[in-house]
Each structure stands twice: as structure tokens, then as C-alpha cells.
Amino acid sequence: MFILLWVDHHDEAYQWALRKKCDVNLNTGAIQVYDVQTVKETAVEKAKPSVFAAVNNKDLLSLGVPEAQLDFVKAMTDKEEFYAAESSIPHDAYEYLSWIVEGFEADEVIQMAKEEMASNSGGNDFVSAFNVLNTLKSFVVVEGEDELRHIMAEPLEKWRVFLHPTQKKIVKKNYSGPARVLGGAGTGKTVVAMHRAKHLASTLENGQRILVTTFTANLAADIEDNLKKICSSEEMEKIDIIHLDVWVGQFIKDSDYSVQIGYDKEIKPLWEKALSEADVDLPYSEKFYEEEWNRVVIPQEALTQEKYIRADRNGRGTGLS
Questions:
Q1: Cα atoms in the Cβ-side hemisphere of radius 13 Å centred on 163
Q2: Alpha helices in the chain (DSSP H)
Q3: How many whole angstroms separate alpha carbon 125 and alpha carbon 132?
Q4: What is the mean pLDDT of residues 68-94?
Q5: What mean pLDDT is predicted for residues 196-212?
Q6: Do residues 93 and 64 lie in contact, with contact meaning Cβ atoms separated by under 8 Å?
Q7: Which of 14, 158, 235, 260 is most buried, judged by most C-beta within 10 A?
């Protein structure tokens, strides 16, 4: 068995290898590639509390953190420091740790890790490690030269929408209600959303449709372009990919409302006009009025004086006579 880890120019490849260790994790059975040099350089005591202060060494090891990186991981004090270290931490351990960084309870993440590792076939050698789910998140097993040629011949665009095993589980799971997928930048949330749309479109009954929406027009166009690479024409006909504001605008129009969506350049002059007509003796700032509108008036539809007087203002911090 040969394991290909990195391809680069001669000196750069040696420089990469100088910092890295490739080993089978004795706790998880997965093959891990991680940075040893960074641990030695960065594992220093800090005044701020660790972002993993609530997780003990035993639990960190159960999540796949190599023993050599315990001090390195425990020295991290905020999200930014953790995300900046992604290339130094084994991929499987980094994924579990990211859940904790994003606010999930450590016990919940540890239980999830145990469930995923339950199917591991025994053994702590490299051959056995390729039967472990967490290994297959980062490695692909190639049987012979023909398969390797086929993989290398695939266009880069296809790799952009490739799913690893954990993502596949999210895509095909039958949720009982709304689901939220969290992750740092570059972890594949959009790829999961695209494959989820394809999966749902393939199971729809007649007349049903899927809406894929985003907050930016450019991302909506990018998603549509990538969906065409993985969906059949029948599936694409059942999926609407549209920027959220465009969808809302169309919904308003179809509902015969004679209003439009306003952005900052339209809204700012309206605020200026309203404030110019306000009682100058009132001790409130422009920010107060905007928050009052967004947090009290609109959510409770208190669009008349009578309704506004009766509106719940709990949590606003400023009482009104």
C-alpha cells in the first residue's frame, strides 16, 4: 500500500513534510495528518481562558485530537485563532472541535463522535484505518492505475461539489422539522445545500417544488450553475434558485401589494425626514428610533398609535411615559 499525502516542487514538498506527521490515531483508528512544528512554537500559556476550557484531556483525545497537540488546542482562546489553525489540526478532530467552538455542548459532540466511530473495524494499522469513516473524509482509496487516471481526468468543477461521508449523512437524513447546518468558512455548507436540494427534488411528488434562496444574488447564480452539473434536467425543473429579495419582491407583486423593498439609499432619507418632524425635546437618538421600529413596531405590527401604546417593550431597556 502506498499513501500519497502531498504533491509540490522539490524544496516546497520537503518543507511541507518537515512540519507534518502522518499516523493512525490510537483512540479513533483514523489516519491523521497534523502539524507538529506549530505545536511546539505556539503551545504557550495565555492569560485568556481557552475556548476548550470546558473539555478535559480525555474528551479531547476521544474527539481525535492527537496527544501531541493537546497543549496546542487548549491554548486557543477564540474562534479566529481556532479557524486560523485548520491546516495544522487533523481534519476529523478539527470538524468535531468546530462544533464546540460554534456553541454546541461538548457532551453532545462527544456522543456524536462515539456514534460515528462505533462502526470502525478494529486495528490500529494503516490497512485497517482505511475502513474507518473519518479516514475516508480525507482520503480516497484507488484500486489501480485506470481508476487513478479516471479521477485525475475529472474537471475541477466536479470536485467543488464532491461530498464526503459526513456531508452525505446530512444530505440524506429525514429531518422531523427545520434543520440548521453550522460550520466555518470553507467547510462545505453550500455544497451540502446543493446536494440536499437535488436529493429532495428526486423524491418530490407532482406539483411540489424546492426553493433554494440566498442573501446575495451572486451566490444564487453560482449555486444554479453548480446544480446544473449534478442534477438531471427533471430535477432542475423542480428547483427554484433565487435571491431572497427577488423572491420577496415577486411574492409581493403576485399578492397585489403596491409596495417595494427599500434599501439603505431609499430608507435613509425617510428616517431623516421623520426625525426632522420629531419632538426635539425628546431625549432619544436616531439609533433608538431605528431599534424601536425594528424590534417593537414591525414584529408586533404596531403601526398605529393605539397598537404601539399597547405593544410589549420587554428588553428594550428604555421606558416610555
A1: 19
A2: 10-19, 37-42, 57-62, 70-74, 79-84, 91-101, 106-117, 126-129, 133-136, 145-153, 156-160, 165-172, 189-201, 217-230, 233-236, 244-254, 264-276, 286-292, 305-310
A3: 11
A4: 90
A5: 91
A6: yes
A7: 235
Helix orientation angle between 91-101 and 106-117, rounded to the nearest 10 degrees: 150
Phi, psi of 219, deg, nearest 5: -65, -40
Number of residues in the chain:
321
The pLDDT tens digits of the residues spanning 28-76 come to 889 999 998 554 455 455 568 888 988 999 999 999 999 999 999 999 9
Contact 136, 30 (CB under 8 A): no
**Phi/psi class of residue 287: alpha, beta or left (left: φ > 0; alpha: ψ in -120 to 50)?**
alpha
d(CA 262, CA 123): 61
CA atoms 225, 230, 232, 234: torsion sign: negative
Name, in order, each residue with C-beta under 8 angstroms of 72's C-beta and a sequence gap of 6 or more: 38, 39, 42, 43, 85, 88
Confidence band for 152, pLDDT divided at 50, 70 and 90: confident
Q: In this predicted model, which residue has the larger pLDDT, 162 or 135?
A: 135
How far is 21 from 6, CA to CA, in rounded Å?
12
Segment 300-306 shows an average pLDDT of: 94
Provide the grid cell at 177: 422539522
CA dist., res. 70 & res. 86, Å (int): 15
Assess contact for 31 and 18: CB atoms under 8 A.
no
DSSP tally for the chain: helices H, then strands E:
19, 4
Residue from 99, 111, 116, 114 nearest 52 by CA: 99
Split at pLDDT 50, 70, 90, the class of 122 is low
Place of cell 426553493: 211
Contact 59, 110 (CB under 8 A): yes
